[in-house]
Amino acid sequence: QDEETQHSLECIQANQIFPRKQLIREDENLQVPFIELHGESTEYVGRAEDAIIALSNYRLHIKFKESVVNVPLQLIESVECRDIFQLHLTCKDCKVIRCQFSTFEQCQDWLKRLNNAIRPPSKIEDLFSFAYHAWCMEVYASEKEQHGDLCRPGEHVTSRFKNEVERMGFDMNNAWRISNINEKYKLCGSYPQEIIVPAWITDKELESVASFRSWKRIPAVVYRHQPNGAVISRCGQPEVSWWGWRNADDEHLVQSVAKACASDSRSNSNKLMNGNCSRDFSNGGDLSDVEFDSSISNASGAESLAIQPQKLLILDARSYAAAVANRAKGGGCECPVFMGMANIHSIRKSFQSLRLLCTQMPDPGNWLSALESTKWLQHLSVLLKSALLVVHAVDRDQRPVLVHCSDGWDRTPQIVALAKLLLDPYYRTTEGFQVLVETEWLDFGHKFADRCGHGENSDDLNERCPVFLQWLDCVHQLQRQFPCSFEFNEAFLVKLVQHTYSCLFGTFLCNNAKERGEKHTQERTCSVWSLLRAANKAFKNLLYSSQSESVLYPVCHVRNLMLWSAVYLPCSSPSTPADDTCAPYPVPGSSPEDQPLGRLPKTRSFDNLTTACDSSVPTTNRRSSDPSLNEKWQEHRRSLELSSLGNPGDDPFDGDSLSKQGRAPVGAELSVAAGVAEGQMENILQEATKDDVGLEEHVRGSLETVAKEDEIALDKNRAENLYG
Domain-by-domain residue ranges, the chain? Predict the structure, then answer.
């Protein structure tokens, strides 16, 4: 197809497949109270009690007198009518929205509209991420060559498998090989197409192993610890059943993982020894003083393993009782170490209890005991301890580890991804963290569509569970204990929580890579990493040091863990020094140069949170241990902000932003223009705000936000000293 034909098809897709819907107003004088994204169309605008409520194909927007609530529709889990006139919206990230209406009929009308809007899609194209991307591509079709890659992940993500094999130093000559047995997902639909296995294991043996493992999820190596060559593997449970079935090829593969580790580490030791020998010989050393085993170089495969391999540690995330119970369903276990982690049903129940507690009004007097009764922190503690056990085995005992649970796509990625984060500082960089999520969660088939409830016809509530959110909570706990070890800040994780559910991006759609390939989500939607990119200074941790600890050993006791208030509580959030914009395209109706240059104070909540961003509070009221340090950091922060103006990739819509005095989110999408002049900020502010707020007030509020972040940073610094 030539360029003109391709452009024509894209226009048809945007205008006809994703047509705009006709706006229905309860009152002719009502206007859409927010700036729409590309592809977004507002369907209803009406009045609630002391508020204006609007519903689009992407969001629910409620403008109260003193605050604004914005929430993506896919973030809403349920809607119900309470107290006759009140709508009660429960969100998937633990928030609750309450909206009061004047009449019962009006409340029922909005109840029906919202229930229809949040229903799981009948086809995946009904999710907003497809319409958003299609309309953006149409609007910027003439500039696609220049700007088309702005919504794509970087090369470090697209070439992650090859890069990771090279970076971790796998010996692909003697110990390991890359198998293409799953090319086009013909062996296992929830596994990547390329997997690492011991060099002497044939594809025929892998087919036999697949018949013995749950969902054909065979043991695959996903990490090599560079200091000693120990590896981490993951798989599904063996199908032992009550009959005690065994599979010789499966046992051979598991044993071969340990032998390949020994071969790999000996091979690297020989390279190092040869280098040392050369230096010794040049200084007059005697060859007879050097002892080494020549069998590695004189043989190949399993026969070359003259050294005694370390015993493989098999870690089962389940309890012993759960593993035995699975034998009745054809599953089972080997002879592993059991970690006793709860299943998705227990985690879902715990999360629901946590949500109920965090949204109680007023604050309950028995808060601490009520928090304990949810068992949420206990579940985090068990997960952290499980990952720490893997770290001990790999780093200190130099033992290879095999991790599995029942199916290998919930608790297994939690443990493996957390262990890799603790073992390797690369995964604690922004780019490395993206690679970690893509590899352990997306490539190996965590069922995001079912667990988040945004898949096609994913109505089964028993399949929903905040598994990924629980893992991100553990990452946040590590950030607290090691504030200098992560390149990204807490706001990065909070934003990732939001967009796991928002469906503005296509990164977390579908249940596995095979489905994403069939639906062409990478070509038809934007990547969340275009927002959470390394160059986005809003998500930089100013305390980060690349010289911090190589391997992290966190404290896992419940008493050392804290509730993630920025996500679960309605009254706190980390402020990000960025405007509420999100994608590589400017706001409809505004020219590319009319983009926001300043940064407004931000809070995130679905309820009344006005005090958190009240710019009328003078900054002198803020407590600071070192005011001079605050001043220096403020100057440094402002210089960073000015230098980063016009950068593409900011958040086109902050899915839960709350604006003081009814201000709408500023600049709903990202500008493709860079280096815009400072004076252009005023135009976009006037367009995005409904009241006459001067620029001076916004600047004052921004300074307050910076002062608050400086205080948090200092507290983190003190926390680092506390944890030693």
Answer: 14-119, 155-268+310-569
